[in-house]
Amino acid sequence: MGYRCAHAAGIRQVEPSAKGCEECLKLGSEWVHLRICRTCGHVGCCDESPHRHARAHFHETQHPIIEGYDPPEGWGWCFADKVMVDLEGDTTPQKGPIPRYY
């Protein structure tokens, strides 16, 4: 049996903070993929993006679990435990079209 996420019980239903990476939209910067925090709804960009805002959000807040969010992809990642998290179909719906910046 593989390593399990100790934070999965803390996954919440959230409202997206923006229709794209919140910080990149303010900066006018590009992103590759989006991630949404399943603690507070912050939308940030992935580690392949220039600014890695989803990871920065984790370091600032210690909110451990993100969801692949463009479109909702059905998987999660726990930054704290460094493991994939099965969201079991519990994905966060997008609110309108998300701009593409890659």
TrEMBL record:
Gene3D superfamilies: Zinc/RING finger domain, C3HC4 (zinc finger) (3.30.40.10). Residues 3-102 form the UBP-type domain. SUPFAM superfamilies: RING/U-box. It comes from the Bacteria. This is UBP-type domain-containing protein. It comes from Roseateles terrae. The lineage of its organism: Bacteria, Pseudomonadati, Pseudomonadota, Betaproteobacteria, Burkholderiales.
